[in-house]
Specification:
The protein is mainly α. It folds into two domains: 10-141, Ammonium transporter AmtB like domains (Ammonium transporter fold); 160-287, Orthogonal Bundle (Ammonium transporter fold). The protein has helices spanning 3-21, 29-42, 44-63, 68-72, 78-91, 95-118, 126-141, 160-169, 177-190, 192-211, 216-220, 226-234, 240-262, 270-287.
Length: 288
Amino acid sequence: MFYPLIVAIKNFIEILLRGISQVFLLNNVITGTLFLAGAFFNSWRMGVGAVFGVLVGTVTALLLKYNRDDINQGLYGYNSTLVCLAIFYFFGFTVPSGIAAFLGSVLSVFITNAMRRRWKLPTFTAPFIVSAWVVMAVLLIFRIAPLQTFPLPNTGKLEIIRALSSGVGQVMFLEDVISGIILFVGILVCSRISALYALLGTTIGVVVAFVCSFPLNMINIGLFCFNGVLCGIALSGKKWHHGILAIAAIVVSVFMMHGMSRFGIITLTSPFVTSTWLVLLIHNVLRV
């Protein structure tokens, strides 16, 4: 009697976990579980934010009767997950921020659907970026909620392990070293090649930023690495040209991050999306 209900609940939970795993452009239930564990290990607020975001995005897509295969793969859950994580990270865990996170998550679903139907390039995290920027602008312009300030740690040396781990964790706004390691294990569980490129992304981010004398405190908390992690995973592959494309996008993302941050812009994952699109467009032109 209850078996169909149990199966339906199990399938729904798996969709949610796939949605969380898609934050790193992956599709794996165990990976999503580890990502969620990493968020909760960092703080219960970020864990709740991840659950709230993937629920809103997935349920909204179901109610709108979007492509069921896309929903089952978690493609309507990850942008909304990132929206909630970003809003709760930058504006705290309050009623106004919760409402903003909900509205931003719903908006990301509409944008995802529109881009998947009309956009020739992969959407990546573009719906998250647009949605988060919109709700953040509303919160700030109308002074609904103040932007939280995060004083960067004072440091006089490069902390390599912390920088590499935080480079992975910062994709989900997690600065804790252990959380970053948990996320990396989650990537490894799904795909060894993706894990290799993720490590390449965070390593190149550290090296380029350090060689260019970018602020050490920003390097140590992974701010020049997380976009590179996503660039690496997005362009990962076993052929030599995959490595070249990934390295090019990673390097570009580091300089974009530095340039945008100097103007006080909350970049989110825009350096990743922009640099990866640019590299793919150039590659397609040259290949033709």
